[in-house]
Fold each of these.
Amino acid sequence: MDTINKLPLEMLYHWESTKADAPYMTQPIGNGKVVEYTWGRAVDEARRMATYLKSLNLPDKSRIGLISKNCAQWVMTDWAIWLAGHVSVPLYPTLNADTVNYILKHAECDVLFVGKLDDWDSMKSGVPESVRCISYPLSPPNNFETWDDIVAKYPPLEGQVHREPAELATIVYTSGSTGRPKGVMLSFENMAFSAAGGIQTLGVGPEERMLSYLPLAHVFERTFVELGSLYAGFHLYFAESLETFVQDLQRAQPTLFLSVPRLWVKFQHGVLQKVPKQKLERMLKIPLLNRLIKKKVLKGLGLDKVKLAGSGSAPLSNDVLDWYRNLGLELLEGYGMSENFAYSHMNKPGRTRTGYVGEALPGVEVRISEQGEILVKSPATMMGYYKDEEKTKETFTDDGFLKTGDKGEIDEMGRLKLTGRIKEIFKTSKGKYIAPAPIENRLMSHDAIEMVCVSGANQTQPHALVLLGEEIRPKMADEKFRKEIEESFTQLIKDVNKTVDPHEQLAFIAVVSDEWSIENSFLTPTLKLKRNVVEDAYEEKVDSWYAQKQKVIWQ
């Protein structure tokens, strides 16, 4: 069917009437057990919850929050909120109490759905007493009204509710690598244009299977998983936990798979711990072994049925991209942001170029400003920031183009290359400007490195803070291991410094012993580096590191 001009609820009614008995969502509930939701059951429960929400007599377009790890109820809640005439406000399931409180108050949420959470005890103090809470079947123990009780008690909302294309559908609070999160207002048209355009470009249909495990509160996952399944009609599987991830993958046997750079690197490191890179490359060059080895590695990752794999949220290093493509996995990078519901650029099969995030998607206008900033415009572009007209005005050009904050360049085939963030550029004591991202990309070619942060504002030369791969971190106290790493990283600095301008050459690599995680605020909920937090954490040590005049320094 033609989905381009259909709004999300229209797609919901389509599957309700044509595929009511077809499986739609598979939800693990522990001990290896799952609950299967057909399209009919999922829409029925959403309609019943919508009846309940209408019974609360909230003003039209009230903001309703949902905080949970990914699960079937998350998706059904979004539908129920729309059916009841309201606006959904997703919150990341890893937020602290202060940020939960800020978002619920800023959005003026009247109701909050509470679901699967690892640390509810530390965040619940952020929920104002005036907010009515509803708990999902897999939520932590609480005294709230439950999803199951409500859908058992209330009848399904009848008929086909119509929401206007320009109506506010959701407020997405950015994961905020700097400062307070901003509320990105997205309309039904924004969401529809992004989801339908992406699905059509990739040629995705109802026969696909997808595992949902990245946060649905992030537009990357929400576009391709929740909205993607709504526009293509494919089967969604949910992950139960990190501990069961391998079993969840094997159950789903996904044909579509999305991840973020840090996880693609982790998957690669897991393989290279079992088979060293050089040995794997040698085996892949033997014609008789090539196909067998590729299949075995991808099967070990649970990705042997994957037809299309995607990476987004941040740039992936060229070496990692090439490594996966060498295994026969069509790993496509895309580019988008909360402000355009992840709809901007995408690599297409057979037209990829390493280091580029692809061509503009249908309906996207793009240009590069005199300052080198990427400017984009499409029907997926946000309505603006909630309660912040000044910031909204700052973010758009006079002719309606969105200022992305990213620097880039476009090749002769229209493919876009990201060359750094405008706000990440820093100045050395020599007065020279440095964009850290391209240097970080080169450093990430080393197998031992999981994450890196290039810094050096007001220093003579930049330096790199490096987090080693999780599997090898325990060896940091071993002298022999340290010597090997020092030799390898010294050579890495030489190799990288040959490829950059003199003022960009690295003074040293500092190997850190700390964990960089969401919990200690070094990473955003989508595993992107919070550069300012990382830099602040090591600020007191930096001068002494420069004074050591060593190429590799251990924290």
Amino acid sequence: MTKFFTRVAVIGGCLITIAGCNKYLDKSPDSSWTELDTPAKVSQLLGTAYPQANYIVFAEAMSDNVEDKGAGVIDRTNLDPYFFNDVSATEQDSPEYYWQACYTAIAAANNALKACEAAADTSRYSAQKGEALVARAYAHFMLVTFFSKFYNAETASNDPGIPYVTEPEKVVMKQYERKTVAYTYDMIEKDLLAGMPLISDENYAVPRYHFNKSAAYAFATRFYLFKKDYQKVVEYANKAFPNNDLASNMRPWNTTYKTMTPAVIRDIYAKASEKANLLLVETQSTYGRYVALYRYGLTYNIQQQILGSNVTGGAFVYPLYYYGTRDYFVPKLTEYFVKASVNATIGDPYVMVPLFTTEEVLFNRAEANAYLGNNTEVLADLNLFASKRINNYNVSTHRITTTKIRNYYGIQDVKNGLLQTILDFKRAEFVQEGHRWFDIQRYKAQITHYTDKGEQMVLQADDKRRVLQIPLSATTSGIALNPR
């Protein structure tokens, strides 16, 4: 019988789970989790191989999707990023909490891989091995995206990366080196390519809580888009939906959702039964509670920029609601509260988050095709998206053409017009979900924030603050801080 201790050290911490050191030390390990002697037990462990923390709060606050409302909930996870300062908070929704959650997920993936390798019949563990490899790649990918300079082929071999951990830790405070962004990307790609062919959609009753085939291919489209390998983006987008049936797997905003109340939309938005959700993860977070209430958030002015008009000439159907006079939100993510015990009045807030969706695959494919010069394919994807998002959509009225794009944006360059359309549609689709920050980083866009008194904070294209600071707790593992 092969035994592995699954609660392992994470970089910069002690022997912990996300709940904390004391909570872990108060309990004995469950034998069913330490004896990974069946594929089912490894699969159970892999349920924890996804970062159970939320990046949306700080990612959204750094972007151009927010303004100072002059009043609202003050939280360091929202305030510090808005001012482009290192986040001083370490609790849920902070960068440090996300860092720890990623390495906790990586630890679970590594223990699963060790169990797969040690099994008497490794062929029985093939699907688990595939999921573990892709999950390990994903957590490292998100870490390097936030805590290192954004991938640039010309500088990646010199830019400091993040520790790529491939073995279960056996000691506390193990020392690590960051190596480079290029090395990190190479390791991500190695795990991704090795893991994808092994994944099986038959392995779980609810595949959307694990890396299924479509979710893994969706991850590949994001990875290669960031790497600017556009042909591979198209390849994996087509693999994610081999029958090109994106239309039937998109959110029905201008049909089914249109008649729903905000509460009902919130209830179904991040459910496994929603076909648009390719991969879901539960995150310990108060975002569902405060999304509209943060002082630095969506305002009337900003929502007009995002949702007010678009190239089709029609109106986006996204329902916009508000509390009072300043707190705006599109109903999406909601909180569910887990009590500490049956009769407890305390507990932990959670938010279920879609990590990959059909819509992202569509956008990634469209953008890649724009760079490849496949304008017909780009327009087909943009028009498909519009058909699901424009109120009272009429193909003869709302169909997107290159002429419409030139006129709307006032530019003659078709490629740039297509790209601008994609980015604008994407901004609208993922408002209040944190995705905008990735596009800001990819295109090195300058961001300007203002206080309610008119003070200005500018984040330049080459500003060192675009890279999140390595948590101080990680320096005990020998990891150098990012320059400031």
